[in-house]
Design a protein that fits this description.
The complex is a heterodimer of chains A (949) and B (213).
Chain A: H1 2-21, H2 31-43, H3 47-54, H4 72-79, H5 82-90, H6 105-111, H7 115-123, H8 138-145, H9 148-155, H10 171-177, H11 181-189, H12 204-210, H13 214-222, H14 236-243, H15 246-255, H16 259-265, H17 274-285, H18 289-310, H19 317-337, H20 362-381, H21 397-421, H22 426-449, H23 463-471, H24 473-505, H25 514-522, H26 524-533, H27 536-541, H28 544-547, H29 549-560, H30 564-575, E1 594-597, H31 602-612, H32 615-620, E2 623-626, H33 634-648, E3 656-658, E4 665-667, H34 677-693, H35 704-711, H36 725-736, E5 749-754, E6 757-762, H37 777-789, H38 794-804, H39 810-813, H40 818-826, H41 833-838, E7 840-843, H42 851-862, H43 865-876, E8 890-891, E9 894-895, E10 898-903, E11 912-914, E12 919-923, H44 928-942
Parallel strand pairs in A: 1-2, 7-10, 10-12
Antiparallel strand pairs in A: 3-4, 5-6, 8-9, 11-12
Chain B: E1 7-15, H1 21-30, E2 43-52, E3 55-64, H2 71-75, E4 83-89, H3 93-97, H4 99-109, E5 115-121, H5 133-142, E6 146-149, H6 158-174, E7 187-189, H7 204-211
Parallel strand pairs in B: 1-3, 1-4, 4-5, 5-6
Antiparallel strand pairs in B: 1-7, 2-3
The chains are: A mainly alpha (949), B alpha/beta (213).
């Protein structure tokens, strides 16, 4: 009874204690339950509670639990519960107990920087040298996190400071990777091996460089670290360049001057990312004037060697060309950063003939002075053609290359000249055939007659043969000359491209170097010969034409003769040059960059948002959202251009007037009725330019003459036909007939209706009193045409072009004629069902043989042109087909063909679409009639507006 | 990664058309005789890393066209060459007679310190010899040239010609007569001296032993 009472009392006591402390007061019997009771207390370092619970308990303090099999001592060390840790150690916890990954409590304390715990563990003889399963010891953990102070305490207990983990990495390796300077110093002071390689041969310096740890690299190098490559031959410098770590490179170069040359040689290496290397060279060049000059000279030398290799016919053209252009680009980049760059203000007195970079190549000059007495001999010895290089003979290393280029072009010119002198007349052809015949004969003879059989057989067989050789020498050279031109044209053109780059980087932006212009003029004939033989050269190498209108005109006729497609590619390549990964790449859209427009006031709201956006942002990409709708993406952008372009020609704004045929438009000469008209014209120009920039089509067709205005081509009287065919006929009549005796009484003036009032406008000064005669009628027709077509709308055209040119440079658009411009802007107006069908893909169960698909195309064929446009708009968001047809349909991320996907049919279900991917989701209709019906309902109701499907 | 060498030398191969310059280069680089040899157009290029006197040297060799019409082009490649092989054909006196012109070009247009070795090629065609060894070696002596008779066909003395030239340049560098740091010397430093060969890794067993004390 009493016993029972006592027990009850104990229990009651326990109950009150437990309730008061809000926890159990006695440990459960089994270790597993007990440990989970204790764990939270240990974590919170509630050592009194833990002590109380452990008192009189049979709990095994070394009990390992959980997934990683840790003891409570691990937990305490990990959390820094120092009191509990002491308690557990006193209770006999094993300080070297390893969890499933081999970690001891000391490892965990070290990893988390639990200083006191570490101290206590060491007091209780924790072994600092134990490795976990990955071979990591406590000092590795301290080194990873840069806990220098703790390391300092610990390292004295360590028997081997160079202890390696499974990868052969020491604490010093990891400290270097993470750039913990003081830790590195501490380890080095403790005798860590500074050149220790890991399993792959990477040293501490290697790691510091691979992670761009400048200060650490500095420490290592000043302590005498060796410059060692890993087992694959990758050096610390390679790593710095790969990572673009300019500062670390600089440190390496400071300690090992020879690496300067190596760094520059790396520009030839195709494997290295150009931007990284450029970044490094940029940094190093900015360290001092002498670095800057040394880098430029070095780059110039490498470029020259590569240029010369490119001019060696046996070298790989593609690789050598890329290499040369890469080096020259980097050269120009570094050059522009320098004090002598034109963008830095000085040296504007560029005189065209001389290389102005005197200060850059000071080093060189000293040498040249010495050299000059020798060159003097040369110049009297053989004074060749007076060339533009003689003013600055070989002042900089690159001049050598330009000199070679010049000599090559002169050589080609000589070969061309020879061609002209010996035109391929019948006689000559016979000689060359004879020559070939003879060659065959003689080689046969030499095989027979001479055992050594040298291919270049100079063996004088007979006097007769020698004579023959002398006679036919000229035609041989001629045939050879053709070869020389065709074999070198590409290579020389690539060097010309490099020459242009170098010339331009010495000029202020937007100016063509007089030296380069002079060069092109000098070699005009050869260059024309190159591009006539292989027009691809223009697109591949003669980019300078796009930047130099004065040179472009020389080649325009050749360029215009190239296929439209090639010119399109060139156009876009240049339009997007310098834009980081153009619009084809999906990137997250910044909420602020979304153009939010209202469907009801599309014109005004678009004008507002576009004028608020920066042109650069608009070039990078457009994201449009309609107010109150969720849809976004390429489909919406396309729809926006489509509707907006329709709005631009809305007669309510009076900006554009319809031409006679009713489908094309041109600026309204009376647009000033809209007071803001010029701003709107600029906006219209921007939208058109933007659409062209992003390869979006617009839903406007302009008059031929307006396309000409965009291109800057003069109009002629025939263009009048598009706005006033009757009047054009009259002009034609005047031109075709003798007007002397007709008594037309025409003067050089025109009456124009300006809002109801007739005004007489002179065509030229004093025109009202100049009669039109048979002699001057052509001038009259031209002037009257210009008045109708140009002068009347000049302010509008100017405003439009101002907007258009913000996105499309005039030099680029002039690659096209007015017909091509229409194709570029508006795509093909007609829908070719066969082409459509041919370029359609099917997914999720459909294929061409499926009855539903067969019905679908039958339905499409029966649709009117307008309905087809609706269908196209429903699926792609635009009513237009790109030029080239359906094969070139664009989606959100590049080419995206029209696609039809199957959807299970339920009654009354309508087709839906995803405009981003040009996908029509077509239910599996049981009958053609139902399909047709549902499709038409969808088209007529659903081709506008986006909601998430 | 980038090639390792102590020095890079720019070399020229010059001489009249048909003396076998390209074949010499081909033999040196590929160790084979080039059967289907055409006239060189402009300048060709080849390179090989050789070991000379304990140093690794990369030879960057420019093989020039011998034909007169390319003369102005090939001259523009001379600048900054450290060494040259001046080649004539022992079976053609004409090519031997032209040597003076080639030599003047090389001495004036390339570096004034250029090291030149005279090569009498086609040694294998001794039967058709038009230039004796003796007169050529006298010419070489008068003009301070090294001299060898070579055969691009058999490969005789080809390697030697290039190596001898390289060794002389190296000696001049070591004696201080040539300064690789000077622009236009035709010599560049590589980073081989920095990349010391790694000694075999200290045995891990040993460190383990130290570890478990």
């Amino acid at each position: 009874m009493e016993r029972a009472m006592e027990q009850l009392n104990v229990q009651l006591n326990r109950l009150t204690r437990s309730l008061r402390r809000a926890r159990t007061v006695e440990l459960p019997e089994d270790n597993e339950t007990a440990v989970y009771t204790l764990m939270p207390m240990v974590m919170a370092d509630q050592h009194r509670s833990v002590a109380e619970l452990l008192l009189n308990s049979k709990f095994d303090v070394n009990y390992a639990f959980g997934r990683v099999k840790r003891s409570l001592l691990h937990i305490a060390a990990n959390c820094g519960s120092v009191e509990c840790l002491i308690l557990l150690l006193k209770k006999g916890a094993n300080p070297n107990y390893q969890d499933i990954s081999g970690c001891t409590p000391l490892h965990l304390a070290a990893r988390n920087g639990q200083k006191k715990c570490m101290g206590k563990l060491l007091e209780y003889n924790a072994d600092v040298n134990i490795c976990n399963n990955e071979g990591l010891t406590a000092i590795h953990w301290l080194a990873v996190n840069g806990r220098t102070e703790l390391l300092h305490d610990l390292v004295q207990h360590v028997s081997n400071v160079d202890v390696e983990d499974a990868m052969g990495q020491t604490a010093l390796h990891v400290a270097c990777q993470n750039g913990h300077k003081t830790t590195v110093l501490c380890l080095l002071d403790s005798g860590a091996d500074i050149n220790r390689p890991n399993v792959s041969g990477a040293t501490p310096l290697y790691f510091a460089c691979s992670h761009g740890q400048r200060d650490t690299a500095q420490i290592l190098l000043s302590r005498g670290a060796k410059y060692l490559p890993d087992k694959n031959g990758i050096t610390p410098l390679d790593l710095c360049v790969q990572g673009g770590y300019g500062e670390t490179c600089e440190i390496l170069i400071q300690h090992h001057g020879r690496l300067f040359q190596t760094l520059i040689q790396m520009t030839q290496n195709d494997d290295i990312k150009e931007n990284m290397l450029r970044q490094v060279l940029e940094h190093v060049s900015q360290q001092s004037e002498s670095h800057y000059q040394k880098i430029l000279t070095g780059l110039a030398e490498v470029a020259t060697t590569n240029g010369h290799k490119l001019l060696s016919l046996s070298s790989n053209y593609e690789a050598q060309m890329k290499s040369l252009l890469r080096i020259v680009r980097i050269f120009c980049h570094v050059f522009r950063l320098g004090p002598s760059s034109p963008s830095n203000g000085n040296d504007m007195g560029y005189n065209g003939n001389k290389t102005p970079r005197s200060q850059v190549f000071k080093v060189r000059k000293v040498y040249d002075v010495r050299k000059n007495d020798v060159i003097g001999v040369k110049e009297t010895g053989f004074k060749e053609h007076a060339n533009i290089y003689q003013t600055s003979p070989e002042q900089e290393p690159l001049e050598l290359l330009w000199h070679s280029l010049d000599e090559w072009l002169v050589l080609i010119a000589t070969e061309l000249e020879k061609n002209k002198r010996d035109p391929a007349s019948g006689a000559n052809n016979i000689t060359s055939i004879l020559l070939k015949q003879r060659e065959v004969d003689s080689s046969a003879a030499s095989v027979v007659g001479d055992n050594t059989a040298r291919p270049q057989a100079i063996t004088p067989a007979s006097q007769a043969q020698l004579d023959a050789e002398v006679i036919i020498e000229a035609p041989e050279a001629y045939a050879d000359g053709e070869d020389v031109i065709s074999m070198t044209a590409n290579r020389l053109s690539a060097v010309i491209q490099a020459f242009y780059l170098c010339c331009s980087c010495q000029m202020p932006q937007g100016m063509t170097s007089p030296r380069f212009i002079e060069f092109v003029c000098k070699h005009d004939e050869v260059l024309k010969c190159f591009v006539t033989r292989n027009p691809k050269i223009i697109f591949n190498h003669f980019h300078f034409l796009l930047e130099c209108p004065e040179l472009m005109s020389r080649f325009m006729h050749i360029i215009k003769a190239q296929p439209f497609k090639d010119r399109c590619e060139w156009f876009y390549e240049h339009l997007h040059a310098g834009q980081p990964d153009s619009d084809m790449v999906h990137r997250p859209v910044n909420e602020n960059d979304i153009l939010l427009v209202h469907r009801e006031s599309i014109f005004r709201s678009s004008c507002e948002v576009v004028s608020k956006s920066s042109n650069e942002k608009l070039k990078q990409g457009i994201a449009v959202r309609f107010h109150g709708e969720e849809g976004m993406g390429q489909g919406v952008v396309r729809e926006w251009f489509d509707i907006l372009s329709n709005e631009i020609i809305n007669p309510d704004y009076a900006l554009f007037t319809q031409s006679a045929d009713g489908t094309t438009f041109q600026p309204n000469s009376n647009s000033s009725v809209n007071p803001d008209h010029l701003n709107y014209f600029r906006f219209a120009g921007q939208i058109l330019g933007l659409a062209l920039y992003h390869r979006q089509l617009v839903n406007i067709y302009f008059t031929r003459s307006f396309y000409k205005h965009i291109l800057g081509i003069p109009v002629n009287y025939q263009d009048v036909a598009s706005i006033d065919p009757e009047y054009a006929k009259n002009l034609q009549w005047i031109l075709d007939n003798d007007i002397s005796d007709l008594g037309l009484e025409l003067t050089f003036s025109v009456e124009t209706d300006v809002f109801g009032a007739m005004e007489e406008v002179p065509l030229k000064p004093g025109g009202v009193s100049i009669l039109v005669t048979q002699d001057n009628k052509a001038e009259y027709v031209q002037l009257v045409t210009e008045l109708r077509m140009t002068r009347a709308i000049q302010p509008q055209i100017n405003a439009f072009l101002q907007g258009f040119h913000t996105f499309i440079p005039p030099s680029l658009i002039q690659l096209f004629d007015e017909y091509e411009l229409e194709l570029l802007l508006s795509g093909m107006p007609e829908i070719d069902v066969n082409d459509w069908k041919k370029n359609t893909e099917y997914t999720s169960g459909y294929d061409l043989e499926e009855p539903v698909i067969k019905w679908f195309w039958e339905v499409v064929e029966s649709l009117t042109q307008e309905e087809r446009v609706l269908l196209l708009q429903f699926v792609t968001g635009s009513s237009r087909v790109p030029h080239g047809g359906f094969a070139y349909l664009m989606g959100g991320s590049g080419l995206q063909k029209f696609t039809i996907a199957a959807v299970p049919y339920t009654s009354n279900l309508l087709p839906t679409s995803s405009t981003c991917i040009n996908m029509l989701k077509l239910p599996e209709y049981p009958k053609q009639e139902i399909l047709r019906d549902r499709l038409l309902v969808a088209l007529h109701c659903g081709s506008y507006g986006y909601t998430m499907a | 990664m980038s090639e390792t060498y102590d020095f890079l030398f720019k070399f020229l191969v010059i001489g009249s058309a048909g003396t076998g310059k390209s074949c010499l280069l081909h033999q040196f680089i590929e160790n084979k005789f080039k059967q289907d040899s055409n006239h060189t157009i402009g300048v060709e290029f080849g390179s090989r890393v050789v070991n000379v006197g304990g140093k690794t040297v990369k030879l960057q060799i420019w093989d020039t066209a011998g034909q007169e019409r390319f003369r102005s082009v090939t001259r523009s490649y001379y600048r900054g060459a450290a060494g040259a092989l001046l080649v004539y054909d022992i079976t053609s006196r004409e090519t031997y007679n032209a040597l003076t012109n080639w030599l003047t070009d090389a001495r004036t247009l390339a570096s004034p310190n250029i090291v030149i070795i005279l090569c009498g090629n086609k040694k294998d065609l001794d039967a058709d010899r038009e230039v004796t060894f003796l007169e050529a070696s006298r010419f070489a002596q008068e003009n301070e040239l090294m001299f060898l008779e070579t055969s691009a066909l058999t490969g005789e003395n080809v390697e030697e010609a290039f190596l001898k030239c390289a060794r002389t340049i190296l000696n001049k560098i070591e004696s201080g007569e040539l300064d690789p740091e000077r622009m236009g010397s035709g010599i560049q430093y590589g980073d081989a001296s920095l990349r010391q060969l790694r000694q075999p890794r200290s045995t891990t067993a040993q460190s383990k032993q130290q570890c478990s004390c």
